[in-house]
């Protein structure tokens, strides 16, 4: 049998061992079951695609933009100057906080800056540890390094793919200053169990991928002391680039507001008085105007994300050996990125699946590689420990991909993606 090789190369020794030397089980029942279930027309999908000579790729992510966004941006370009300077930003912050049901929102250039400000507001610094789940984009953990603290990498839950409460408990130490949770791919971790184990340690909720998700009627981003959001062009709500930090604590909001504007307070703003050195972490009016239009369409945008997931679920939900994003009791998942985990019996690694789809003009993304496997964090001793213990994150990363989930994707395109995936599963290596 071939080795399963994950999406990460140049890893620390233990990480490389975990991702690169896992052997396949000698099982072939799942491929046989797929053969019986497969769309009878699927075998002609690849040939038809080649005959038609299409060059258009199916995108993995992307926005849905209408005339409303163009109208809002044009109005801001014409009016947000002089006495009206910044009014679109103020309105976006107010409307966003109202949507979440939270007291304060601060618009920033990106979610990375929101996380950076959150950690500064909580006075995290050298000598402190911040616990973060393995499976997330590097931007979740990078601000821990910015403030001079040490990242501690916890494993993920095998069902939600979010922070495991049990692993979190093992990572706690007297130096733990904060915990960062991640609402991965639009899902939400077990925040009640996490809060019980945190025992008062502040929680920063990275809700970058989860606008529109809810847990027990509470919006994603409102489940910790500070929540952060991304409005990158791939996200459900976009401003091109952008982010938001939200909180119900006035002291944290005041600190975030000061630090994002070069350390100035409202009282010293007119006189250019800077009390401390801060950052230029403000959003522009044109970005905010775009975001206001997107927020006005939030139900439509989130609804389309859920529809896309249902298209995939209908076609792949019964395929043996495949697992899609979970549905949890009490949680409204937004399914920002439809993700499939493939049983090892198929002999298809993350990288191989991506290569096969790429040959057929279909864009995919890898399940996010464990943070502790990245060379960027190799200098931390915590990476070595994590690579040894965080088996779930390493396992899933070796055999899972994000399927095309762009907001403008069609049901016909989903059909093609699902047919191709079943062909790849049958062959074990895909078409040549």
What does this structure look like?
Belongs to the DegT/DnrJ/EryC1 family. Pfam families: DegT_DnrJ_EryC1. InterPro entries: DegT/StrS_aminotransferase, PyrdxlP-dep_Trfase, PyrdxlP-dep_Trfase_major, PyrdxlP-dep_Trfase_small. The modification N6-(pyridoxal phosphate)lysine is found at residue 235. This is Bacillosamine/Legionaminic acid biosynthesis aminotransferase PglE 4-keto-6-deoxy-N-Acetyl-D-hexosaminyl-(Lipid carrier) aminotransferase. The chain is an alpha/beta fold. The protein has 2 domains: 3-61 and 299-427, Aspartate Aminotransferase, domain 1, CATH 3.90.1150; 67-296, Type I PLP-dependent aspartate aminotransferase-like (Major domain) (Aspartate Aminotransferase, domain 2, 3-Layer(aba) Sandwich). The chain has 17 helices and 16 strands. It has helices at 13-20, 29-37, 45-52, 67-79, 87-100, 111-121, 142-146, 165-171, 191-198, 250-259, 266-269, 285-296, 298-316, 350-359, 381-389, 391-397, 411-427; strands spanning 3-4, 22-23, 104-108, 129-133, 150-154, 176-182, 203-206, 214-215, 218-219, 226-230, 243-247, 322-324, 331-332, 339-342, 365-366, 400-402. Strands 3-11-10-7-6-4-5 form a 7-stranded mixed beta sheet, sandwiched between helices. Strands 12-14-16-15 form a 4-stranded antiparallel beta sheet. Strand 4, helix 7 (142-146) and strand 5 form a beta-alpha-beta unit. It is globular. The two termini are 19 Å apart. Mean pLDDT is 90; it is low at 1-29 and 49-53.
């Amino acid at each position: 049998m071939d080795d399963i090789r994950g999406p990460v190369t140049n890893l620390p020794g233990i990480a490389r061992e975990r991702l690169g030397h896992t052997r396949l089980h000698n099982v072939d029942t799942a491929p046989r079951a797929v053969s019986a279930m497969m769309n009878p027309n699927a075998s002609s999908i690849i040939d038809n695609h080649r005959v038609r000579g299409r060059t258009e790729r199916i995108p993995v992510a992307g926005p849905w933009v209408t005339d409303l966004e163009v109208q809002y941006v044009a109005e801001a370009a014409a009016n947000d100057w002089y006495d009206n300077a910044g009014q679109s930003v103020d309105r976006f912050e107010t409307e966003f906080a109202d949507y979440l049901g939270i007291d304060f929102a601060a618009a920033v250039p990106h979610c990375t800056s929101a996380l950076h400000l959150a950690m500064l507001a909580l006075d995290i610094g050298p000598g402190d540890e911040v616990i973060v789940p393995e499976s997330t984009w590097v931007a979740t953990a990078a601000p821990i390094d910015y403030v001079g603290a040490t990242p501690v990498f916890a494993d993920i839950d095998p069902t939600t793919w979010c922070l495991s409460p049990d692993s979190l408990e093992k990572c706690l130490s007297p130096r733990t200053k904060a915990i960062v949770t991640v609402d991965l791919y639009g899902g939400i971790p077990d925040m009640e169990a996490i809060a019980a184990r945190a025992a008062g340690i502040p929680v920063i909720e990275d809700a970058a991928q989860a606008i529109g998700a809810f847990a027990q009627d509470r919006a994603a981003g409102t489940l910790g002391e500070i929540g952060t959001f991304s409005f990158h062009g791939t996200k459900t709500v976009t401003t091109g680039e952008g982010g938001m930090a939200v909180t119900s604590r006035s002291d944290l909001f005041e600190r975030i507001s000061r630090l994002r504007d070069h350390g100035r307070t409202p009282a010293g703003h007119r006189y250019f008085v800077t009390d401390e050195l801060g950052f230029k972490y403000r959003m522009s009016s044109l970005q905010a105007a775009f975001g206001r239009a997107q927020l006005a369409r939030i139900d439509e945008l989130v609804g389309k994300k859920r529809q896309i997931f249902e298209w995939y679920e209908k076609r792949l939900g019964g395929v043996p050996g495949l697992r899609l994003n979970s549905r949890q009791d009490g949680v409204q998942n937004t399914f920002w990125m439809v993700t499939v985990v493939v049983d090892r019996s198929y002999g298809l690694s993350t990288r191989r699946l991506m290569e096969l789809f790429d040959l057929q003009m279909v864009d995919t993304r890898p399940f996010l590689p464990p943070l502790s496997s990245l060379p960027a964090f190799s200098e931390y001793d915590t990476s070595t420990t994590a690579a040894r213990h965080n088996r779930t994150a390493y396992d899933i990363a070796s055999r899972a991909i994000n399927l095309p989930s762009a907001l403008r994707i069609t049901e016909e395109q989903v059909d093609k993606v699902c047919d191709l995936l079943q062909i790849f599963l049958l062959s074990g290596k895909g078409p040549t």
